[in-house]
Amino acid sequence: MMTFMRPAAALLTACLSFATPVSAQGFDGVVQLDILDGGRTANGTYLGALRLTLKDGWKTYWRAPGDAGIPPQFDWGASGNVGDVAITWPAPEVFDQNGLQSIGYANQLVLPVEITPKNPTKPVRLRGEMDLGVCKDVCIPERLDFDHTLDADAARNPAIAAAFAQRPYSAREARVAKASCHLTPTADGMQIEARVTMPSAGGREVAVIEPGNPALWASRPDTERHGDTLIARSEIINASGAPFVLDRSEIRITVLGAKHAVDIQGCSAG
């Protein structure tokens, strides 16, 4: 059976133990944010990373957090000389607790960012806020400030390199032969059945479907494998309840396995 939680219900579940938000400082320093330097690349971009260090047993969430997680959000607006910011997400873990499934990271997350400067002759200053959720026995929303001028001459950073190495495989690297999506209208929105032909990612495989449109929300997929084909079924709705069109080229399918994760961009009609 598909599990779906609308955004408001998810946030309520995540924060039900608190009547008002609790800051990191107010909850005994649950999480600390540092900016790591990775130097400048050959094409003129800057490498850096947001490093979140959590107290033992605490976890935070991936960009698609699961049934009741809080997706992280970033505000780079106060930064200086920042043109574009590209984030590379390391493959997350799947957590099952009290019948709910969440997706994220335990104890520490190093999140690489590659910054394209507006003016290549001037320094890059990362300044802004990160909103996130952290959980242990309870879940709390956090807002963390950062302010750091990146070091163009910094050496290669092993922590950033390790985080890049933990990214999901691309469809080509994972030998994905085909990815198709069959769409069927439902009373609330659209059912999607994704069929991915690829070798196993190892052990229990969990599929995550992202519609590609921030106004749309997808239920937790039912995932099963038949030979070389992984099948994931989910329901997608518009949070406003309005009709919508689903663009298959924007659909993102991530398969999380015991050996590795796979990131698949777009799917064909099926």
From TrEMBL:
Leader sequence residues: 1-24
A Pfam cross-reference name: DsbD_N
Annotated InterPro entries: DsbDN (IPR028250)
Thiol:disulfide interchange protein DsbD N-terminal domain sequence ranges: 48-146
Keyword tags: Signal
Recorded superkingdom: Bacteria
The protein, known as: Thiol:disulfide interchange protein DsbD N-terminal domain-containing protein
Organism (species): Ruegeria haliotis
